[in-house]
Amino acid sequence: MIRMPRVVVWAALLLGWEVFARLTADGFVIAAPTEIAQYVWRNTGLLWRATGVTGWVALQGFVWGNLAGVMLALAAVLIPRAERGLLTLALLAFCLPLVATGPILRVLYGPGQGPQVTLAALSVVYTTFLSVLVGLRAVPQSWLDLARSYGRGPVTLLALVRLPAALPYLVAGLQIAAPAAFLGAMVGEFTGAERGLGVLTVRALRGLDLPATWAVALLAAALSMAAFAGIGALGRRLSLAPPEILLAAPDDARGRAGASIQGIAAVAVALAVWQGAMDAFDLPRFFARRPGDVWDYLVTAPEAGAHRANLLAALGETLTVALPGYGAGLLLGAGLAALLTLAPPLAALVLPVSVALRSIPIIATAPLIVWALGRGAAGSITVVAVMIFFPTLVACLHGLARAPRPLMDLFDSYDAGPLRRLWGVQLPAMLPAFFASARMAVPAAILAVTTAEWLATGRGIGALMATVASTSDYAMLWSAIAVIGLAALATHAGVAALERAVLRRTSPEQLAG
């Protein structure tokens, strides 16, 4: 079979892109490569300066967010009783809708890069927290028992046993965090910054400048892909080897009642932090509503029934597209990871495209996808699926690669084929990473659907928050934030319950403290 040179393949792809863009020009969705190149040539200096601003903001958020995520994971392992509270606070912080968070942070920080750095950090802290937490627990119970038999304490176990086992998971988390930090920085610029790629995106969207929109989106994707590849190369350079067979007895002594009590306590802590932060900074009640204000607005006020009806109707619209997109993204990511395991040569083609799709800022992709597929459910579902597909793919690929070598050799000794090895060894090894990605996808799905509603569809709770923010109806705005947080916690709890039931059978070491 004759293999075509790579240059010829890329030239053919660009030519096909150019022809397709010209044929569909009336649809106002795809810009031709020649139009994008012309924009870049005319605005090279502007793009260079904007890239420097956004890149510096993203780097700061990447560092601070990942440090926070690692510290939270270490605290959760050292203080197991604090895990649920830490997880709840991290989840709620990550689920704060951008349409509400951006303006609030801009008011709190005022001029400067504070909101952009904060959003970039919030975009990565939760995913890194979960990735590292899974890694810290991916330790054979026999290793822990051996270390304890020599009188080693929790800190020594953490430093000598758990941390080395967590390094591959940390690399996976950092790879996911790199595009997320860049996205967070650009979204922060979307809320009122003066410079950066996010500002250029806003101008392009408002001016219906399709070549500019594509140019900025592709530039952001290229930078994110470079960061993703660099972190992966560093992980390979360190030769991070997975541990051998992971065997441990399940440790699930808390039971449903204990988990429920801890969940209620975590919500109570979150409410206390909300109230305490508002009071500590002495923020005016007109703008910064407290939990009691939300309760009054939704429960005890004379018009509370109408308020609840409006809010729940908008939430229902959002969930009807968020949940299908969530499931589609998870299944697509896990299925493609399994396919790439069976056919490794495809990875060279699929992974760059997957990274590019995830790296393009959602504030640019959401309007384009909705314009292409319409303002109905299909467009929003696709936005959500694209948003969570890439982290799921990356996590599942790492999980599949951590299949225990002795078990793989055992299957090979019986001449088991690739499908049998996949089903019997690799998929069970992938499950912890899959469920970690499923938990990470909960806030990502909320981010995607509310952004699509805000920028493109004009429906659902995202559009509601945009409307009430513009009319200074802060009671409804904070009520919407609270309802979204509760919906995220409920979904996360459901995924965690399913995870515990499955891992109790397949990977009990993940349940061991």
From TrEMBL:
The record's Gene Ontology biological-process terms are: transmembrane transport
Q: Which superkingdom, per the lineage?
A: Bacteria
Keyword match Cell membrane: yes
| InterPro entries recorded | MetI-like, MetI-like_sf
- Where found in the cell? Cell membrane
Classify the protein's membrane topology as the record does: Multi-pass membrane protein
| Major location category of this protein | membrane
Q: Where are the transmembrane segments?
A: 55-79, 86-105, 117-136, 157-178, 212-235, 256-277, 321-343, 355-374, 380-401, 429-455, 475-498
**Which keywords has UniProt assigned to this entry?**
Cell membrane, Membrane, Transmembrane, Transmembrane helix, Transport
> Of which family is this protein a member?
Belongs to the binding-protein-dependent transport system permease family.
Give the protein name, as stated in the record: ABC-type nitrate/sulfonate/bicarbonate transport system permease component
- The organism encoding this protein is Salipiger aestuarii
